[in-house]
User: Which sequence fits this backbone?
């Protein structure tokens, strides 16, 4: 077989037309935007510190009044939805531990039982679904005419695992009943109802929304509300500083490399990583993870729709050797890309070594594996192979979602909380991580199938599902949505077994949440203007 010369390869690149991706809505906006002055930030931090201690006293007083189960549960739920619970992890765990040990279940009230079940499972406590048995009617259903009660029950039941028939029945019966109640009373449903449950919601997005909701409540606590607002604005200033630093890095990267073939989504990727670890003390993690996911996005676009098969193979070989001297056979645009990835990764390794991170040797491996997985998709595409079953498709495609790499990088960047054994566990592709990959991959295939069919692309999972079951696109999409629901049961199951520290399991669940958010209704990452308002609320508009 004849091979292409370097000149021919360059000629092919020049004649190619990159996909017409929409440009970034942000450009260099974060180089110039100033969310607040240093004196304003200092003042907010002072006020927040005072408020934080006042709220701590409220929590301790509630814990002392141990008979007030309802008040206890509602306080925890409020702090979480307002996004300030990270200040009180020990106190909240004490509250929930006390309540979990109350074997009576705390209440014969359906709302309180649902809230308790939701919070305990959300925090890894394996409370039994049998607590709902006492609410069943003669037909075996559980219902109520109180909208708030049904909404809480809806959220609680979405922390189900496989085989929990009572929770399956509640979801089936009460969703339609709740929809009828909302229409009958002309009440607008909450933003998440019928879309996703609170457990799957991205924390910072919910915090921004709920601050506005809580502010209108007659029962609001002024101190908690003020803390939530101050804390939100303080974190917004931290995120802005991160984006400013990343924008400088990204503009320099772009100036050295021809990236006309790729999506410019650095800001969106920071928002994505913000959904994984949002706390202020994980600033370095977010910056590092954003750089890594920028690489992953560039490699995805490179392998998927721009480079020739020969270029893909040569580039992957260079990545595996991790040596600048091996790039001579690459065209100029790939050589520049490789060198920039290599230099940035080496710099991250040096930074982690200075932090005495014991897992630094894994960083390079994660970057190389990303390239290898994408190259495997090229080989699959070139063979025009359509898997015979959805399960076979998942076995291949979930690996190339780089979800495992993102999870491991997140765990590594958290520092001493993560051990070598934790990373080894993550590399075994446990249910909770595989589940996050499936949620993202299946969701992406559903929303991007129509657009991708106009391009030379790997076989869509929708195509595979249609072929396997002999169904239409709409019917295939419905079957794939069922897979997503069953996968969330796998995630909850693994989460409740607590095989690793909760902070690590929570990180893996957060990746699933962000995947769900990005691909719920459309490919929001590719069609990034759909995220503009949400991102503005995270980084630009204070509360």
Assistant:
């Amino acid at each position: 077989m004849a091979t292409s010369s370097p000149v021919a390869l360059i000629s092919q690149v020049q004649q190619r037309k990159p996909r017409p991706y929409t440009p970034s809505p942000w450009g260099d906006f974060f180089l110039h935007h100033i969310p607040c002055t240093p004196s304003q930030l200092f003042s907010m931090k002072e006020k927040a510190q005072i408020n934080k201690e006042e709220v701590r006293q409220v929590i301790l007083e509630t814990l002392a009044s141990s008979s007030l189960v309802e008040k206890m549960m509602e306080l925890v739920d409020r702090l979480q939805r307002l996004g300030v619970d990270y200040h009180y992890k020990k106190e909240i765990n004490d509250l929930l531990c006390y309540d979990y040990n109350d074997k009576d279940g705390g209440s014969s009230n359906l709302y309180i039982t649902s809230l308790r079940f939701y919070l305990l499972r959300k925090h890894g406590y394996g409370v039994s679904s049998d607590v709902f048995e006492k609410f069943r009617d003669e037909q075996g259903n559980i219902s109520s005419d109180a909208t708030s009660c049904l909404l809480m029950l809806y959220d609680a039941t979405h922390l189900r695992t496989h085989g929990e028939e009572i929770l399956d029945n509640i979801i089936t019966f009460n969703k339609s009943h709740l929809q009828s109640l909302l229409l009958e009373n002309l009440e607008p449903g909450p933003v998440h109802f019928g879309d996703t449950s609170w457990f799957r919601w991205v924390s910072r997005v919910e915090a921004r929304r709920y601050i506005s909701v809580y502010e209108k409540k007659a029962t609001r606590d002024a101190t908690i509300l003020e803390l939530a607002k101050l804390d939100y604005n303080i974190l917004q200033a931290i995120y802005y500083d991160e984006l400013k630093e990343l924008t400088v890095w990204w503009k320099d990267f772009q100036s050295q490399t021809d990236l006309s073939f790729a999506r410019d989504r650095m800001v969106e990727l920071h928002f994505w990583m913000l959904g994984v670890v949002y706390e202020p003390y994980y600033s370095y993690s977010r910056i590092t993870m954003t750089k890594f996911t920028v690489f992953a996005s560039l490699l995805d676009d490179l392998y998927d729709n721009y480079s020739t098969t020969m270029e893909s193979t040569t580039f992957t070989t260079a990545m595996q050797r991790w040596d600048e001297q091996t790039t001579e056979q690459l065209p100029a645009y790939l050589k520049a890309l490789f060198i920039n990835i290599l230099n940035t990764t080496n710099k991250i390794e040096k930074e982690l070594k200075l932090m005495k991170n014991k897992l630094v040797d894994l960083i390079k491996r994660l970057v190389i594996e990303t390239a290898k997985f994408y190259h495997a998709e090229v080989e699959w595409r070139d063979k025009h192979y359509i898997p015979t079953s959805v399960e076979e498709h998942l076995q291949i495609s979930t690996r190339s979602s780089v979800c495992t790499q993102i999870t491991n990088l997140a765990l590594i960047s958290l520092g001493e909380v993560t051990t070598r054994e934790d990373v080894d566990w993550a590399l075994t592709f446990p249910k909770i991580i595989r589940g996050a990959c499936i949620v993202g991959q299946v969701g992406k295939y559903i929303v991007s199938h129509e657009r991708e069919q106009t391009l030379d692309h790997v076989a869509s999972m929708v195509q595979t599902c249609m072929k396997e079951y002999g169904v239409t696109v709409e019917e295939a999409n419905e079957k794939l949505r069922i897979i997503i629901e069953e996968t969330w049961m796998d995630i909850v199951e693994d989460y409740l077994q607590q095989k690793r520290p909760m902070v690590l399991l929570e990180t893996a669940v957060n990746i699933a949440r962000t995947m769900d958010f990005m691909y719920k209704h459309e490919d929001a990452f590719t069609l990034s203007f759909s995220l503009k308002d949400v991102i503005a609320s995270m980084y630009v508009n204070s509360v």
